[in-house]
Design brief:
Layout: H1 9-37, H2 45-62, H3 69-80, H4 97-103, H5 105-132, E1 137-140, H6 150-153, E2 166-168, H7 169-179, H8 181-188, H9 196-203, H10 210-222, H11 233-245
Helix pairs in contact: 1-5, 1-7, 2-10
């Protein structure tokens, strides 16, 4: 049976609160360092145009049922025509993101700066937490959890008798690392550079390939079936109102 622990208030004052404050301060510091290291580049007009075309085609696909059939077919031909459609990419004209990165040293340098601004602070912070706060039970979650959460919440504590709702200091570090995105959005704004989850997903990539996005959106728009919803809109609204009144 899991044991209930009484946490000392000194753990709250010298482990939990300092660790949380340091993680927030490091995130804010990384944001300003990333802004200083970020090089100002003029966006590629072709990539911006292709991105806007993908967005327009996606909006057409999502709202297809609210456009008359004739207008939808005209827009579909405008985007998906095999000769001069906006989404049609001839074979051999697609851009290779890896070759584009190798041909543009600024892109590779920016990617390296972003990765370094994420890896170095995380490595130093984890070493600091592991050296000073390893082995502490820092907090307790106020609701019961299953055993599947033990490995996530009790990293560094090898005691199976401790209840799963208790959180170790090392696990508290990881929870702050990936869970402060909402707080950083309030402090720094939505377009902040402290989103570690998104950065980890981008570390293995070499950029966005617009030709693949155009081809994928063209395939999705080709298979979209049109079913105009407006002629039956009044009848459906009347049926919904009758259900609500009754």
């Amino acid at each position: 049976m899991a044991e209930d622990l009484v946490l000392d208030t000194a753990i709250r004052d010298w482990v939990l609160i300092p660790l949380s404050v340091v993680m927030v301060l490091i995130g804010v510091l990384r944001y300003f360092v990333s802004k200083l290291m970020r090089s100002s580049q003029t966006p590629d007009a072709k990539m911006v145009k292709e991105g806007q075309v993908i967005l327009r085609a996606r909006n057409l696909r999502v709202g297809a049922n609210f456009v008359p059939s004739k207008a939808f077919r005209a827009r579909k031909i405008y985007f998906c025509n095999e000769e001069n459609g906006l989404l049609f990419v001839p074979k051999g004209q697609g851009q290779n993101p890896q070759a584009q990165m190798l041909s543009d040293p600024n892109m590779a340098m920016d990617m390296m700066k972003k990765n370094l601004s994420m890896i170095i602070p995380q490595t130093l912070t984890f070493a600091w937490v592991n050296f000073f706060f390893s082995g502490f039970v820092a907090a307790k979650i106020p609701f019961p959890l299953t055993q599947r959460f033990r490995a996530m919440l009790q990293n560094g504590i090898d005691l199976s008798t401790v209840d799963v709702s208790y959180v170790s200091s090392r696990s508290w570090y990881f929870l702050n690392l990936f869970g402060l995105r909402g707080l950083f959005s309030l402090i720094l704004g939505e377009e902040n550079a402290v989103d570690d989850t998104q950065r980890m997903m981008q570390m293995g990539g070499f950029g966005f390939d617009p030709s693949k996005g155009l081809s994928a959106e063209k395939d999705n728009l080709d298979i979209t079936q049109h079913d105009w919803a407006l002629p039956n809109f009044e009848q459906r609204a009347e049926a919904v109102l009758r259900k609500v009144i009754s």
